[in-house]
Amino acid sequence: MGFTMAEKKKIRAEYAKRYRKARKAEKTRILDEYLKLVGKGKGKYAIFILNREGKKQLRLLGGKYVNAEITSSHAGKGCTKNTTMRKLPRLS
């Protein structure tokens, strides 16, 4: 089953909502269902993704702290919504 990135994002968002609201026993069932559907074999990574998807996080942008929505599994590495790339000064 090949999904496009947009489809995977929708699937991840839906499962993340259910996962965060669920109790422990239900989380296991939801996680197994998600892994079976998406075809990923890494349970710990899936837990990380489902826990972070859609949450708000304070980010420092232009000297100000802003609430940025986490929208991807790589959010811990700086990929957030409403952020822009800045050119850093060159080191001499």
Describe the protein in words.
There is one protein chain. The chain is an alpha+beta fold and 92 residues long. It has a domain at 5-52. It has helices at 5-21, 24-38, 43-52; strands at 56-61, 64-69. The chain has a two-stranded antiparallel sheet with strand order 1-2. Strand 1 and strand 2 form a beta hairpin. Helix 1 packs antiparallel against helix 2 (24-38) and helix 1 (5-21) crosses helix 3 (43-52). The longest helix has 17 residues, at 5-21. The radius of gyration is 16 Å and the shape is globular. 14% of the residues are buried.
Instruction: Based on Cα principal axes, name the global outline.
Output: globular
Number of strands: 2
How far is it from the N-terminal to the C-terminal residue, by CA? 51 Å
Main pleated sheet: 2 strands, antiparallel
Structural class, by secondary structure, is: alpha+beta
Task: Provide the fold topology.
Blueprint: H1 5-21, H2 24-38, H3 43-52, E1 56-61, E2 64-69
Antiparallel strand pairs: 1-2
Helix pairs in contact: 1-2, 1-3
What brief labels describe this structure?
3 helices; 92 residues; two-stranded antiparallel sheet; alpha+beta
In a nutshell, what does this entry contain?
By secondary structure, the protein is of the alpha+beta class. It has helices spanning 5-21, 24-38, 43-52, and strands spanning 56-61, 64-69. The radius of gyration is 16 Å and the shape is globular.
